[in-house]
Design goal:
The protein is an alpha+beta fold and 350 residues long. Helix content is 31%, strand content 26%. The chain has helices at residues 19-30, 63-77, 79-83, 101-116, 126-132, 155-168, 208-214, 273-287, 332-349, and strands at 9-15, 35-38, 54-56, 90-91, 94-98, 122-125, 143-147, 150-152, 172-174, 181-182, 187-190, 193-202, 224-231, 243-246, 252-256, 259-263, 296-304, 313-316, 322-326.
C-alpha cells in the first residue's frame, strides 16, 4: 500500500487494481504516461482472485475473444522478460464436450474463424477425449473440441508482476482508496483526497458500471455470481486433468491438487442451492461416472463483470476522456495483456 498522499493530477487515473487495471497501469507507465491507479481494496482482491486460474485461447463461438487471448498468451510467455516476474505457466489443455449434433455443426462452421484468430483447436472423437481425461464417460459424449494451449497460472502472480513493473516505470498505485465521486472535469474524489485526471481508465470489474455512472457514462453491465466447488478427494487417484467444459450445461472441471475443482455458475433466480447442487451432481454422474455421488464443498465465490454478449467492452467515451475495459465474464486473466495494450493505444492516440 502506498502511504504518500494522492498527487494533484495525473495523465491517466486507472480505477480498479485487478488483472486488467494493473495491466493497464503497466502498459501506460511503460509508454511514459504519468499514471496513478486507485484500488478500493487490495490489489487483485476482486474478481481476479475468484477464478479457476486458467488462461486459454479457445472460446467456443467467439473467435474475437480468442484473438485477444492468443495475443495475451504470447505476452504471458514473455512476461518475465518484460516485468521481471516469472509466471510459472503449466500446460493442462482445454476441452469442450459436445453432447448434441448441433454443437458439432456449430464448431465446424466456426473452425476457420478460430484458426484465422490464431487459436489452436480441433475436433476429436469421444474416445480420444476419454484418453485425455479418463473421467469422461465416452458413451455420453459425441465428440469434443481440444485446444492444447491452456495453462494453469496464479492470477495474483499476474497482478503482482504487473503492479511491480508499473511502479518501476513510475506509476503510483494506491490501495484501500475507493472512488466516491467523479466530476465533469475528470476530478476523481476519494476519502484520501482528490486527483485531476487527464484521462480516466475504468477497469473496476463488476463495479465498472457503477464507476462509469459516476462519470455519466453508460456501460450496460450485468454482473453475475459464480461459485467454485471442490469435490471430496476422489476414491482413485487421477493424473492431472485438462480443464473440461460441458458445452450444454456450462459445467467445468479441472484438477486442483488431490481434488477436482468445478464450476457451473450459481443458483438461478428462485432456485435453491440444494437444487443447483443437484443439477451439478446429475451432470457429474452422467459425464464423469467416477464422480457420481461425490461430496461437493464451497471453494470460493465471487462476482464477475459480464456484458450482454459475454464479449468485453474496450473503448472510450465519444465526448469525454473516459476509457474502459470491462465485461470480461470471467475471462479477464485470458485477455489482460491485450486489454492493457488496447487501452494504452487508445489513450496515446487521443
Amino acid at each position: 500500500m502506498t502511504l504518500s498522499a494522492l498527487p494533484a493530477r495525473a495523465d491517466a487515473v486507472v480505477i480498479g487494481g485487478g488483472v486488467i487495471g494493473t495491466s493497464a497501469a503497466y502498459h501506460l507507465a511503460e509508454a511514459g504516461v504519468n499514471t496513478v491507479l486507485l484500488e478500493r481494496g487490495s490489489l487483485g482482491g476482486g474478481a481476479s482472485a475468484h477464478t479457476a486460474g486458467m488462461v486459454r485461447t479457445y472460446f467456443p463461438g467467439n473467435p474475437g475473444t480468442g484473438q485477444m487471448a492468443v495475443r495475451s498468451l504470447n505476452a504471458y510467455h514473455d512476461f518475465a522478460r518484460h516485468t521481471g516476474s516469472p509466471l510459472g505457466l503449466k500446460r493442462l489443455g482445454f476441452m469442450a464436450l459436445f453432447t448434441d449434433e448441433q454443437q458439432i455443426a456449430d464448431f465446424e462452421a466456426g473452425h476457420q474463424a478460430q484458426q484465422a484468430a490464431g487459436v489452436q483447436v480441433g475436433l476429436i472423437s469421444a474416445r480420444e477425449a476419454a484418453r485425455l481425461n479418463p473421467l469422461i464417460n465416452e458413451r455420453a459424449v459425441l465428440a469434443a473440441a481440444w485446444s492444447p494451449e491452456a495453462y494453469h497460472v496464479d492470477g495474483l502472480d499476474i497482478v503482482r508482476g504487473y503492479a511491480a513493473a508499473a511502479r518501476n516505470h513510475g506509476a503510483r498505485l494506491f490501495t484501500h482508496t475507493p472512488v466516491t465521486r467523479i466530476d465533469d472535469d475528470n476530478t476523481v474524489h476519494t476519502p484520501q483526497g482528490s486527483i485531476k485526471a487527464g484521462s480516466i481508465v475504468c477497469t473496476a470489474g463488476p463495479w465498472s458500471g457503477e464507476v462509469a455512472s459516476m462519470a455519466s457514462v453508460d456501460l450496460p453491465m450485468r454482473p453475475h455470481a459464480i461459485e467454485m466447488l471442490f469435490t471430496d478427494i476422489p476414491p482413485a487417484p487421477h493424473r492431472e486433468l485438462p480443464m473440461t467444459l460441458h458445452a450444454t450445461s456450462g459445467l467445468r472441471i479441472r484438477s486442483w491438487k488431490d481434488r477436482i475443482l468445478l464450476a457451473m455458475g450459481a443458483p438461478k433466480d428462485a432456485e435453491t442451492r440444494e437444487a443447483w447442487l443437484g443439477r451439478i451432481a446429475g451432470h457429474l454422474g452422467t459425464l464423469f461416472p467416477a464422480l457420481d455421488g461425490i461430496g461437493l464443498h464451497r471453494a470460493w465465490s465471487g462476482d464477475f463483470d459480464a456484458s450482454p454478449t459475454n464479449t468485453a467492452f474496450i473503448g472510450e467515451h465519444p465526448t469525454r476522456r473516459f476509457l474502459y475495459a470491462a465485461g470480461f465474464t470471467g475471462a479477464g486473466l485470458c485477455q489482460a495483456p491485450a486489454a492493457g495494450e488496447k487501452l494504452r493505444d487508445l489513450l496515446i492516440a487521443k
